[in-house]
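Tutorial sheet, problem 5. The four components below are modelled jointly, 488 residues in total.
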Amino acid sequence: MKQRLAAIGTVETLPHRVAAFLSREIESGELNPGARLPTEQELSEKFGVSRNVVREAIAQLRADGMIEARQGIGAFVLAPEQRAAIRIDREALKDTHNMERLFELRCILEAEAAALAATRREKEHLDSIKAALDRMGGEERWEEGSIDADLLFHREIARATGNSYIHTFISFVCEQIRQSIHYARLTNPLHDLVEINVGEHVRIYDALVAGDPDAAEAAMRAHIVGAANRVGVKLPLQKTTGAR
Amino acid sequence: MKQRLAAIGTVETLPHRVAAFLSREIESGELNPGARLPTEQELSEKFGVSRNVVREAIAQLRADGMIEARQGIGAFVLAPEQRAAIRIDREALKDTHNMERLFELRCILEAEAAALAATRREKEHLDSIKAALDRMGGEERWEEGSIDADLLFHREIARATGNSYIHTFISFVCEQIRQSIHYARLTNPLHDLVEINVGEHVRIYDALVAGDPDAAEAAMRAHIVGAANRVGVKLPLQKTTGAR
DNA sequence: CGGATCCAGTTGTAGGATGATATGTATCAC
DNA sequence: GTGATACATATCATCCTACAACTGGATCCG
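Model answer (structure tokens):
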């Protein structure tokens, strides 16, 4: 747990700050695709840091496919479609409207994933899903432990689809939501404990055991809409009927 | 175009190679979460590079949330759930099975996105979607131009959902698929020109204009299954009925 | 005019030096 | 002996300088 807190409250290192600055400049359109960045020396003078720091910052942006550096010429901004990675700005997560969008994305992914999982799940998957479910209800303290179990439950369902990309994407989105909730609790301590509806989870699990994709999808959709409501986010989804 | 080729055939810089090595070691489980990496000096000796290069490599991994460095102690491997970014290994894209998984993920995202877009699209969105559609059919040469138009068509639909995260995710997945097709064509030159079914696109567009979410979703689903087939990937989706 | 060569600018890599921080050890007072 | 303090060590963070590799243009030469 200490490890997680350390990860969240990570100190802002100089290269990280420089990278964030350049990144925002690119996102905001001040540096258009194809434009050339200032030289490393100019940047190091501008920010008052060593060239080494600038290079580490650029290494980060380059790894994301945001810019491309060519020896002897300079560094250039790439088009957004050429990004090699998806990264979500933690600052943006503090905005409730963005949280709503994130929940919407999560709903899309997980609802379909639940349907897939219902047709493909094997015994091993059901066992680990059940284990997460038990941990969730068994925890006396509603704190971190049961939140972890909740996330594990969702990740295990994603894994049961047999599609590693789906697993990766869902894990990622869930983790972003966890962290944005974490922030929200810091600034708004009245949500001291997070309410988890075990009944909704059980309905999902039952549908998976039954191998019914439509029921699994509907249950998952209802659950995520409910979870969003419980943290104060209203999902404007049109598909709450579920049945088809 | 030269720009894109340069981006794809980018030279392997030393920090990139070191980062890739460490990354593989983490993914393969040789370095478990919580494990401590060798010191920067040890790594620089092991790889025969300067400490500077090692630091740039670590900066990349750290930006992805794959490792966490703590001053005075060392660098530690983080759990996969704590990743701050999604990155897809280009090497993995050369595997047909992975392409199938990627198409499946794409189908999930885009089908639901099309339904959302049908209810939320405004005139501006319809105009840009139509423009992409015209470019697609109008291109004489089936080469890059119309592939670009195809991708733009899908991205504009994603944008019409009004959810920037959905837009980002779909753009990303589409781009990965584009590149994996690019690779496939290099090794298998019999697919010299990519076939694009304009009719399928028109049906999607019509459903969006009509504002019919179910029709849009079904049309999108059918289109992506068709597109996968045309590049030799068979999608094992259970939901080809579409109508609800 | 054409071509080879040189030159200045930029990124890539190397190596060392110093500061900041965490951990363990030794010393000292009591 | 015990506790607190000071010190030593290890490690990452940052800075600095220098040189190598590469590019593009200027210059020079025929």
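Marking note: Chain A has two domains: 6-82, 92-229. Full credit if you identified this.
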